[in-house]
Amino acid sequence: ELNGSIIGETWAGTTNVTFEFSDNGSSESGVTGDDETPSNDVAPEVGTLYEGCYVLRKEQPDGNTVVTLMSVNGKAYLDFDEEYDGQEQIKSVMDAGIEELTQDLNVDGIYGWRLATLEDMEYIKSHPDQMKEGFYAVTKKTFLITNTTWYYYKKEGGNVGMFNSVDGVTDDLFSSGQCYLYAFTTLTFTK
């Protein structure tokens, strides 16, 4: 038996890859973890709770159903050191924040928690009523959509940025105030 580990960015989530070895060499036999759900589960509807998480989005590419979940709690006023050292410190603070937001969710089998992507944030921007009224209806918590409220997201290339959900403006300036962190993950429900 041969075992090994590859450690990447902790905030990017975990993916389990299984390899089969034979006399002919090796071949990848399957990927599980971050975005896979057993096929006997029924995909939840947008605007509902699934395992204590808010169902943000639901798509059906290739006959499967892909669902994006977000934590119902957010975190603001993140603590950046006075000796700000750029993206490495920001990623470390995001890691700690995501871990804190997801440790109390108590969701068995849901992994791969991450920052929002630009696509997630653009979806939120284009569905303000769902986020204001729908989010509150099932969570009894307010999701702010104002000109002065920003959300952390993972930019293309891996850096962290800020997104304003009213006008879609993105920024690299970091504030410990009116910028919120939510944890996201994606599940694939197979037929």
Key terms for this structure?
191 residues, alpha/beta, 12 strands, 3 helices, five-stranded mixed sheet, single chain
Overview of this protein structure:
The protein has three helices and twelve strands, in the order E-E-E-E-E-E-H-E-H-H-E-E-E-E-E. Strand 1 and strand 2 form a beta hairpin. With 191 residues, the chain is of the alpha/beta class. The chain has a five-stranded mixed β-sheet, with helices on one face.
Give a quick account of the main beta sheet: strands, pairing sense, barrel closure.
5 strands, mixed
Beta content comes to 25-35%
Radius of gyration: 18 Å
Per DSSP E runs of 2 or more residues, the count of β-strands stands at 12
Helix percentage range: 10-25%
Average pLDDT? 80
* Poorly predicted residue ranges: 26-33
Q: How many angstroms does the end-to-end distance come to?
A: 32 Å
Shape: globular
Helix and strand succession?
EEEEEEHEHHEEEEE
Read across the widest sheet, the strand sequence of neighbours is 3-12-6-5-4
* Tally of DSSP helical segments: 3
SSE topology:
Blueprint (H helix, E strand, L loop, with lengths): L14 E8 L2 E9 L2 E2 L11 E2 L2 E7 L5 E6 L16 H17 L12 E2 H9 L1 H12 L10 E5 L5 E5 L5 E2 L7 E2 L3 E6 L2
Parallel strand pairs: 3-12, 7-8, 8-11
Antiparallel strand pairs: 1-2, 4-5, 5-6, 6-12, 8-9, 9-10
